[in-house]
Every structure is written in C-alpha cells, then in structure tokens.
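so the lab meeting is tmrw and i was supposed to have these ready like two days ago... anyway. pasting both below. for each one the top line is the aa sequence and the line under it is the structure tokens. i havent really looked at them closely yet so no promises
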Amino acid sequence: MINAFVRKLSGLADLAEDDVATLIASTSQVRQFAARRDLIREGDRPGPVFVVLSGWACRYKILPSGTRQVTSFMLPGDSCDLHIGILDEMDHSIQTITKASIATIPRAVMEDMLDRSPAIGRALYAAQLIDEATLRAWIVSMGRRSSVERVAHLMCELYLRLQGLTGMVSASVELPVSQLLLADALGMTPVHINRVLRGLREAGVMEISRRSLRITDPAGLVQVAGFDENYLHRRLKTIKSIY
C-alpha cells in the first residue's frame, strides 16, 4: 500500500516499481503513539530512522531554564535523522503532537536501500536538503522577522506543506497545534501569540479556530509575511492561487 512516505519521495525522484516496493517493505514496522509521547530524547543513543505515516510530531530542545524551543514540525511523509547513527547521542528530542503512526526503519535496512537504489538515495537526500532549507527559513524568522511576520510566515509554510499532502487546493487546512506549541516554535509567549493571531484575524488575512487554519486573504497574508516558498522546493501552486 502506498503511504505518505512513498508519495513524498516519489515526488522528489523518479522511482521505479522496485524502489516503491522496497520503500513500502521498509516501512512495514509501524507503531501507534499517543499524543505528546517522546519517540526519542536528547542524550539517547540514536536508534532507527523514524518515519511519520500519519499524525504530527515535532523536534524540540529543552533549555536549562526549563523552557522549550520547537525546531521543526514533522508531517505525514517526513522522516528524520538519516545519518544521526554516526553520532554517539541525540542532540534534540522528537515528540508526537497528535496520535501518530510511526514506522521505524532499522539502520542496516536504510543503509542497504541507499547502497542498492540511487533513486531512493536521491529522494532521501532531497528531502533532507528541504528540511535544512526550512530550518534556515526558521532561523531568518527568529532573527529578522517581526512577531507578526514570523507568525504569518509559519502559517504560509504550514499551509503549503499541508496542501502538498493532499494535492488539493482549499482555503482551510487542519492545524492541530495549540497556541502554546506555536509559542514554543516561534520564540514568543502564549499571550503574545494570542495577540498576534487576533490581529491577523482582524486584518482579514487568516484565522485559526477548532484546530484548523483558514486563509481568508492569501495575497494579504503573503504580503504580511514577505513569504517566498522557494525554500520548500516543492512542485506546488503558490499560496496566492487558492482563489
């Protein structure tokens, strides 16, 4: 059965039928996790490659003060830590946000796939490069964008990533994240996040309600964020085209 991981990699490289069959077999070991469960913690020995087949997860670090910084959101089809096995220990933690189906690919199986299939290797490396480009965009947001721009930029990014999962264009997408989690991702307080979201809603560009994001003025939101989706390197329509 084609899963989100196979669909994602198929969009990043030309995979033969044997490649698809190999990827399906490699993700056959699936575990169900409840929300807010750590898959692995900072300081742990690296384990298998985790692949999100359904649900949401995030990477995060805990500071000495006890505060948390979320460094990325992981959506269905995303994998993590392709080469972390060469290190002695994890330098960050990974936790589910919602209930999630997680496939685990043993290191030996992953290395064998990379050796046997150049196409799978290209797709995985492309996915990793996109992750790194996304992290750079987050660094720019944290360092140079205002709080309003920062929130708007993340909403544009998540909208495009979520649209890419279905291939369908809609003004609304599911967004199962709390304001506290958004605050941890954007380096803001929950009170400040609430104020910014209210301002964006009053400006008529977007609104978040009942675990969903609705973009009411795509061009306006893009302008507020100064958003350019080139860093996602996806074959997607731009956010401005949803109307």
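ok protien two:
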Amino acid sequence: MAGGKLGIGLTGRMASGKGEAVRILSGYGFQYISLSDIVRREAAKVDPKVSRVRMQDIGNRLRAQGGAGVLGRLVRELILAAPEPRWVIDGIRNPAEVRELKKISDFYLVGIECDIPTILARMKERGRATDAVSEEELRAGLEREWGQGEPEGGQQVGPTLALADFTVANHGTLADLKTRLDQVLEKIGVRHE
C-alpha cells in the first residue's frame, strides 16, 4: 500500500452476500462506502421509499448525465479526500465504475457469486421493502441488474463481475465467506487481525 489508499471493491448480484462481506471487512478496520449511497441520496429527493426499479432508473440517469463511470469517480474522489487508508466499496455495477476506481493506488475488485435460488431465498428472508414483490419481479430485477436489456452505461453486473481480480463463491455459511475473504486479503498482502 505504501502510504496510498487501499480499496476492496465488491460486485455481484443483489443478495449474493456483498453486505456480509462489507461487515467482515469493516470488522478488519476498512471504512465503508457504497456507490448506491449516491443513488439513494438522489432518490431521496424524489421519494424516500423509492422502489428498486426506480433506484435502477435513477442510477442509469446519473450515468447517462455524468458518464458510465460517474458513480465510481465520485466515490474515488471521496476516498482520496478522506484520511482513512483502507476502504471497502460496495455497489459497483458497471465496468466504467471499475475503471474509475482502478485509479486508487491499490484497488482490487472482488466478485461475490451465488446461485439464483439461494439469492431468491435470501431476498425473501431479509425482509426489505424492495424485496416484498413477486418472484417474477425479483427475477426481472436480477436480470436487469445483470445487464439484460440495459444500455452500456446502465446496470452491467455480469460484465463487471468478469473484471473481478478475485471471485468468492458464497453458497455456504458466513464462516465460509469469511474464510474466502481472508484468503483474498492474504493474496494481496493485507493484514486483517
């Protein structure tokens, strides 16, 4: 890291376990930031209880107005201006965001993978208002997020996941996820006691 910033970026489908990965890395002293926070702030101007579809639309509008990497650029600028050296960055959904975040001195993209049946079960269990829709709507949201029917500057989790420096399967327990994240940190030479 040599005095610079370290960013561990997370990408993957919704409910794949990125939030759990954030909790694990935060426990190791990583500061948390999400590209979705920027979208949520914009959405709150419209409606504090905005739907997932509307959030996706707002994110796409921001990308259309500021370029596909705008959310990554804004988060990178916030990180570089902050005193904290280690960051976990969630909500990366477009390859252009990865290109912006790669401008951080040490940035690694970690893809969290999980099968669709497990994701659907998790979405039903977690009880978020945005998940309280039919399974058909949840599947449509997953397809859209993956990039189906989306413009190049829109949601592109599939192509973004393909850029991952490391991929972590999250089909098991939280202990399994922690072990796999620990292995990633060891590979990049990060102490995490």
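from a quick look at the 2nd one: The chain has nine helices and five strands. The radius of gyration is 16 Å. will dig more after coffe
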